Amino acid sequence: MITQEKYRSKVKKLLADGSVKMVIGYSPGSTADRRRPLFIRSFEEADQLVLDSNCIANLSGYLVTEGLLSDEKRVAIFLRPEGIRSLNILAAESQLNVDQIIIFGFDSIGREVNSLPGEHADEFSEFIGSIKENPPEKSREPLLYQLEQMNPQERFAFWKEEFSRCIKCYACRQSCPMCYCRRCVVDSNQPQWVNTSSHTLGNFEWNIVRAFHLAGRCVGCGNCDRSCPVNIPLRLINAKMSEEVLGSFNHFAGMSTTQEPVLASFKKEDSETFIL
Amino acid sequence: MTENIQSVHNNIYKPAIMKIVGRHDEAPGVKTLKLEFQDPDDHEQFKNNFRTGMFGLYGVYGEGESTFCVASPETRKEYIECTFRQSGRVTSALADADIGDLITFRGPYGNRFPIENFQGKNLLFVSGGIALPPTRSVIWSCLDQREKFGKVTIVYGARTVADLVYKHELEEWQNRADVDLVLTVDPGGESPDWKNKVGFVPTVLEDIAPSPENCIAVICGPPIMIKFTLISLKKLGFEEQNVYTTLENRMKCGVGKCGRCNVGSVYVCKEGPVFTAAEVSCMPAADL
Amino acid sequence: MTRILFSDKLDNCVTRWQSAGFTVIGPVTKDAFSSYTAVEHASDFDLGIVLPDRSLKELFFPQTEPMLRYTLKQQSINTEDFTPPSGKKLIFGVRPCDAAGLSIDDPLFGWDYKDEYWFQRRNNSVIVTIACTKADDFCLCTSLKLAPDSTTGSDILLRPLENNNGWHAEELTDRGREALLAIEEFLQEGSEPTAPMAVVPEMFDLDTCVAWLQNPENFESKFWKDISMRCIGCGSCTYLCPTCHCFDIQDEGDTYSGIRRKNWDSCSFALFTMHTSGHNPRSTQSARWRQRIMHKFNYFPGKFSVNSCSGCGRCSRQCPVDMGITETLQKISTLHS
Fold first, then answer.
1. Domain B115-246, CATH 3.40.50.80 — does that match?
2. Which residues of B touch A190 (CB under 8 A)?
């Protein structure tokens, strides 16, 4: 609560002195443990700000809302470490000017919220490097071990079952800060790359295409997984892809605002020579 | 809901098969196809239902369906003519289709121009660019029973001379004593031998200043032309209920179910596409 | 005296209905996720949940439905209809909001042009609804002038007994009577006390909201922008909604053979109304959210005299950014029309 009060006054100060035009944070949601995105432009809105361990959603995707940053004014945003990493990727992929962003970095252990020191994305590089070197204990999904034990047929059957529930609402895409394309490949119809129908084949196509587009870019914020209204464990696919990319290319997504996209850059020492 | 139907004997999404019997390049990217029904039942259904102003969904299997008006008049129902600009997936496939090829048609759908109410009145047609086809359906529907109507004035404009569609018919209308045709192109769009007007449609309309007395106006064109033409007509003294126009929106079903063509509470596919200016002015402008 | 179906006889009923030719369907939970699913035994039902995660509409209007198969051969096109599965279905344990959802969409699929894909399924189904004895924070049927024991759209309404060991069975239609007749020997006459209905507080005054929505001046109110700022434009609310009916028509295949399908589509998507020219009548997310609310509470009732919302609350329950009809209408009800 002390953190929250401190942030409310910080936010008001930034708005009052014109340093930012908006602060993106969290407000109470429709149930006790839900939090919803909040766009603060006034003191009244600042008073709705909450910051606690239930503030989980990665809000960085809102930064690429059409027109938000086009006036070159600054915006502040509350971000967890994954959020800062996704912001770095957005900057590295030229989707925004990171100098327009003021970061309120935070993390939580249990119910306790900690502030992360720094304001500009570059100030967090060392901290993110430390996450790469010492990944937090908590979380390798038990299901991932199970999936690795399966043979390809079993794994295919597992995902077929999971994807059979997909309804192609695209909540995974829309909630993902990395899915910023104005026109997604599945929405193109000349040519029609991907079936739009939500049947077994169409659902496989969609989810696998998305997994590949996120390989080396996913920061594991979990937005897709939490957004999925039919409980497909999307985090597993993306977590596995991240591990593969880390193992193969020593690439940890979102290290800095200048990190080269791993699957869109080429180095002489890359082992595959097909491109030459 | 007591009947127990065991097959889709009346599948409203099943199109009629049409053969392309004519094909004409109108303007860059704009083509007219002349289509003949393959199944006499489909043709009969069309003959019973088609009135000028209605639209259809023209399709190429494997690509999909696209919505545009029936450009031929209700006085000529042996065939369907449609005119379209090649822009998306379906219209590209239609543009590639050749004489003898088969395409699909669903319709006719929507409401119509109530031309029986136009009888005895002067008619003013105002049209721009690729929007002549819907107007042309009404024009011929009236010219084919010319004696029932008063003075007929047609104002048609396009960006350039090349963009004018139905050039052969424009010539025909120009030569008719019982039709006043005023052609115009946007400034800069004229060719060296262009003898007609140069200027935007609303401006030209105000120059020729047709009398609103006992007159019905039918206007079709891009939204921006419609907007300014409505202002001009108002200046000239036309009342909104005597001005008819058509709206177009993206459609998939054409029959009021797929949920995308509404402007406010109005379903364009069922309550339109023909509206009076009075009706349009009641619609939320932000949704047009 | 009414007829009572005791829980311990339910499996007999399921078997009996199955042998009468019905596919028996009901709420089933698998991997912490629930939907109306075909069952073999009564024990497969999960009748303890507030309502299934997925709505009932998809049994009548599936997310993808083949309509036509086309083949082109030497200058002739052959088009065959796909007919919806013609088997009889008995759907047990439907929630009143889901049942009402079906009857809300009947006039839409039936006006002028009758969509047989919807009506064939409707005609072949018996809806056995169980009145709700529990609700959660998102239930809002009472705000929509429905109730935990509404009969709209149901063929049979079951009211849970106080002892939680069965239901009072009320037949509502001929189809309901036939379904009860088939299991007559498992029913008992009696009048046990029934359990109290779920308490679903009224979240807003619907008439106030509708008056505000109908006022043309509010169409361009700043309210729409503010309320929808956090909307990410996914289709989750529309796809879980028991009444949202929008769809797309898509061909799969090539010029020579393929299938034309009817697929769910959503007014939340930017491309939904986009013209080929690039013009988009609903070009912002706020215009799209306004469309959804207006459609449900202004346009649809204007056409069909019924709101296109049965108060299940799935839109709010599942929204990734905690939006939904409840929040929007609650806020509207506090605005001055």
1. yes
2. 88-89, 92
User: Cα A77 from chain centroid?
Assistant: 14
Q: Tell me the longest C-alpha to C-alpha distance in chain C.
A: 71
For chain B, give every domain's residue range: 16-108, 115-246
Q: Give the CA count within 13 Å in the CB-facing half-sphere of A229.
A: 28
Average pLDDT over residues B249-271: 93
Question: Does the pLDDT value for residue A1 go beyond 60?
Answer: no
Which two structure tokens, joined as six digits, stand for B5?
A: 């139907």
Contacts of residue C209, Cβ cutoff 8 Å, sequence gap at least 6:
C297, C329, C332, C333
Instruction: Select the more confidently predicted residue: B239 or A141.
Output: B239
Question: Using alpha carbons only, what angle is made at residue B154 by residues B152 and B160, rounded to the nearest 5 degrees?
Answer: 165
Instruction: Enumerate the H helices of chain A as residue ranges.
Output: 2-16, 43-46, 81-92, 125-133, 142-149, 152-163, 171-175, 200-214, 223-227, 234-249
Grouping H, G, I as helix, E, B as strand and the rest as coil, residue C48 is coil
Position of tokens 């049209």?
A: B127
The reply to whether C270 touches chain B by the CB within 8 Å rule is: no
* Tens of pLDDT, residues A137-152: 666 788 888 999 999 9
pTM score: 0.94
At C137-192, the pLDDT tens digits run: 999 999 999 999 999 999 999 999 999 999 999 999 999 999 999 999 999 998 88
- Contact criterion met (CB below 8 Å) for C92 and C128: yes
CATH class of the domain defined by B16-108: mainly beta
Q: Which residues of A touch B88 (CB under 8 A)?
A: 189-190
Kindly state the tokens that stand for B269. Answer: 């596919």
To the nearest whole Å, the CA of A190 is away from the closest chain C CA by: 12
Q: What angle do CA A117, A119, A125 make, to 5 degrees?
A: 70
The distance of C304 to chain A (nearest Cα, Å) reads: 27
The answer to whether B151 and B180 have CB atoms below 8 angstroms apart is yes
Say if residue A267's pLDDT is above 80.
Answer: no
Low-confidence ranges of chain C (pLDDT < 50): none
Q: Buried b / exposed e across B131-164, counting CB within 10 Å, b at 16+? A: bbbbbbbbbbbbbeeeeebeebbbbbbbebbebb
Task: Name the residue of chain B whose CA is nearest to C247's CA.
Answer: B258
Q: What is the pLDDT of residues A47-81, one digit of tens each?
A: 999 999 999 999 999 999 989 999 999 999 999 99
A251 Cα to chain B: minimum distance (Å): 40
Contact with chain A for residue C145, Cβ under 8 A: no
Q: What pLDDT score does C310 carry?
A: 97
Token pair 């790469």 is at which residue?
A132
Q: Is C285 on the interface with A (CB under 8 A)?
A: no
Number of H helices, E strands in chain C: 11, 12
pLDDT mean across residues, chain C: 95
Find, among C6, C314, C306, C20, the residue nearest to C160 by Cα: C6
